[in-house]
Every structure is written in C-alpha cells, then in structure tokens.
C-alpha cells in the first residue's frame, strides 16, 4: 500500500490534518514531531499513556518492600534498646518512602521503554527523516492506491510544505 | 476504472529528503560538542591531574590509615563529611530546576535544566565517594548495605546513617534516570547528525527514538511522573542528610529546624554552582541567545530567596539557643561566633547572608561579572556553613574538659580539592558527549513562538 508523508512546519497544522484525515476514515496514520506537542499527540490518540500504571505499580511495590524489609530484618536480628520497640514504624517510614520513589521511578523508565517501544534501532525505516529531528513535523498516512489523490489533497489543504510518496 | 498511478498525482515520489540546511537551533547547540580547543584540553588535563593527585593521596590514606587526617578528639567528622554535605547540596539544583519548575510550568527552565541535571548526577557521584573516603577502611564500607550474610546480621534501620544510604542511592538512581529520559530525544538528534563511532553510540543510547506521537506521549507522561516523584525526593534527601546531625544530642545539631534549613541551603548552593559553571560556558560557547540574562536573573532571584531563608535559619538558631536557657546550647553558639572558629562563622554569614542582599538591585542581577563573583562567594560560604555546623558543633560539646581543636590536614585538603577537579573533569567530558542544553525543549518554545506569531508562511 502506498504511504504518503506530509511535511509541516507547525503543530496546529498537523493536528488539524490528522483530525480531518481520521474523519474521512484514514486511520492508519502516524506523526513525527521534533518536540512534544500534546495537541499533535492527542489528535492521533486521545487516551492518556499507560505509563502511569507502571509508576503506580512500582510505587506500591516500593512502599510494601520498604516496610517488609525493615520490619523483617529488625525482627530477624533484634537490637534490643530499653524503651524502644524493635519494630519502629516512624524511622522505617523513611526507608519505605525512599523505596517508593526508587521503585516508582525505575518502573516509570520501564513503562516508557515498553509503551514507546524503545529499543536500539539501526534501520530507521523508509519514512523517518532527519528533518523530523530538525524542526519539521511529519504526517504519515497509509492508504489504498485509489485514495492517494484524495489524501494528498487533504495533506496539502493544511499547508503541507511538501508531500512525498513512499512505496512501502 | 483504474485509478491513475500514484506517482502522477503526487509531486515527488521519494522519501522525505534530509533538510538542505539543518535547523539553526540544532547547529548552534550541537556545535558545543564539536572539536575542542587547546584551552579545553588544558583545563581537562589540569582537572585530570588534580584528580590523579587526590587519588594518590587517598591510596596513601588507605595504606597509612585515617591517622593522616586531622582528626583529634573530640572531632572525628572533618573535612570529608563537610565536603560530602557540600556536594549533596550542590546536587539539589538540577532536580529542583527539572522537576519542581517543570511542575510549576516555569518555561525558562528549558535552557538550563540539562546542565543542572548533569551537575546533579556528577555532584551526587562526587559526594558518594566521600562516604567511602571518610570511613577509612574502604573495604568494609559494604557493611552499610542490607545484604544476606553468614553472620546473620542485619543493618540498623533506626540509624540516620542508614537512612542516608537509602536516600543518597535513591537520589543517584533517580537523577540518572531523569537525566537519561530527558536526554533520549536529544541523543536522537545527535544520532541523525553524526558518523562513525559516535553514530553507533548515539544509535544505541537513543533507543530508536523517532518522535512519533506514541513516543512523545509516553515520554511526556514519564517526565511528569518522574517530576512528581523527584520533587518529594529532593526535599527528603537533604532532610535526611540534616538528620545525620539533628538526630544526635550534640548542642548546635539537635534542632528541628535542620531539615528545611538544609534543604534551603542546598538549593541556594546548587543554584550558585549552576551560575558559577554556566556563566563561563555561555561565554565560551557563545550561547547568549539560548541562555539569556533573563535566565540568570531568574536564578539570582532564587539565590536571594534562599539566602533569606538560610539567614533566617542562622538567626533562628541563635535565638533558640538564647531563648532555650540551656547553657550548653548557648555556649555552643557563643563559641561558634566568637570562639576559635570565628573566622569560618563570619565567612559563612557574610557570604550567605550579606553578599546575596546585593541581588535586590536589578543592576546587579543583570551584571554578569558581578553575578559570577557573588555565585563564587556563595559556594565558598556554603562550604564554610557545613564546616561551621560540623566542626564547631563537635569541638565544643558538653564538657569543657573534652573540648578540642580540629584543623584539616594536607591530605584532607588535597582530596577536597580533588573533588572539585573530579566535578570539573566529568562536566568537561560530558560537555563534548551530550547536548548541554536540552535541544528538543528549546525547540518546543521556539515552535510555539512561531505558531503564536502566525508564522511559517
């Protein structure tokens, strides 16, 4: 199937084009942006990123680990000091707090890698161009042969600076 | 009817070309990483020389024992702990700028957050070494980690020193993660514009980043979450460091004000260090367009604010000592200001309390050489603040018969100097390996501005 790549200068143009293309039923599209623009990212997919689930799980595991670690270890090797409980929650809260942050942060990184499908990549594919890491935006649409003209017109309607056809 | 062949309908049948000329932001900011002047190599060699010297002194100390440090009864926490606290403090600016200012949507942070994060990572690494140096018997420093062992012993979780272990390792890990996550899009920019070995390294490190909507979405979320996690973390780390002191019964240490006092001091010194480093970097690499006087002015306002908080804490300490009616407390503070360490105390009060008051004046906030001088003085003052707290506290405890005097020995001073060289060495190395200004975030602002001006046509 042909793949068309529109090159844009401004995020608003991309977001508008995406919305219109989706309205016409061209759902197989992807954007490339040099910087984060929520309007562009949300126009492709409105759902918030599921990275938050990873952070939550990491944080919960961290707090449980923190208390479990300290309580178990201090009972396994009790240091008996007069008037002081062996299982002393206030100081152990500090450990639990630090581990909440530690596990939550590490799981956020895992979430990013999983959800953004990050892995070293030596072949950047036919569509990606170094201009998308300069200051241009890309809007990539995959469509049927018969729709090429219509998609091109739609891309240009939103001020695409150029439209390229990539046979993929 | 068959549709016309696609090639006829589309202007160009080809992959999007690489731009004829790269964007100016890329060129300007990547140029910092290119080549290296003779001056750069000279600085690098000097820093490496001092690090080597410090390493040699440290090896001598491991061989000869801590007796070569200036410790004398009752002062057994000396320049190493002072410098440890100093570097942990420096490490606070990066996370403050990246996390807290991110949550407050202070867009001006974009120009300085990368360098500040880099300083954070290096400063925590520098600080962490001092724990090993201070314990002397470095081969036993793993005793502080809770690991299963033959003796069936566990660590004491009620000890502030152990809280510190957890706080510092967590802070190091999270600042590295934060730093790396922010760096991924910029590594992709560098990847697309490099060749050979560099390209290979950037390709691996940038993890196939292309800037698709899905990637940016996950990235934005991650940065938000990491900021949310790092904000309480950064406040906790120096609080925990302060509890190393405050949980004891030493007069002058045992104070509830210590946690906020240390956190404010940490931010104060961290911002001063960012200014001390970035003012010359901006000048040398001609980055005036990206790091403007406006950025420096904002940072100097932070200096002024935190200076006032720190000065208040100084005042509160003396007031409480007097108001408590506790003789040891009163003596400790009297000796601090007029005892054998009076010079350190007055250096601290002048550099941290009086000098930053100049920043009330806009003329001074925008006069870069003066700002640089003030930031250096603050660094000096903040090192002395920790010196005053630790050394005078220990040397004038309860019983006058047990009072003593500590003077740093030459091996201690050598290693302390080496830590500054270590910091400089790694900053200089990273300056050539990663974009020291967050390129994607600078573009974010530039493109917003372009869109706002109805631009592009």
Protein architecture, described:
The complex is a heterodimer of chains A (168) and B (457). Chain A has 168 residues and is α+β, with helices and mostly antiparallel strands. Chain A folds into two domains: 2-47 and 124-167, Alpha-Beta Plaits; 51-115, no CATH class. Helix content of chain A is 49%, strand content 14%. Chain A has five helices and four strands; from the N terminus they run E-H-E-H-H-H-E-H-E. Chain A has helices at residues 11-23, 38-44, 51-76, 89-115, 148-157; strands spanning 2-8, 29-32, 137-142, 162-167. Chain A has a four-stranded antiparallel sheet, covered by helices on one side. The longest helix of chain A is centred in the middle third of the chain and has 27 residues, at 89-115. Chain A is rod-shaped and about 85 Å long. Chain B is mostly helical and 457 residues long. In chain B, helix 4 (79-90) packs across helix 15, helix 5 packs antiparallel against helix 6 (113-135) and helix 7 (160-192) packs antiparallel against helix 9. The model of chain B is unreliable at 1-12 (pLDDT under 50). Chain B has helices at residues 6-9, 24-30, 38-64, 79-90, 92-103, 113-135, 160-192, 196-205, 213-246, 258-285, 293-324, 327-338, 342-354, 362-365, 368-395, 410-433, 439-452. Chain B is built from 17 helices and no strands. Chain B has one domain. The interface between A and B is large, with 87 and 84 residues.
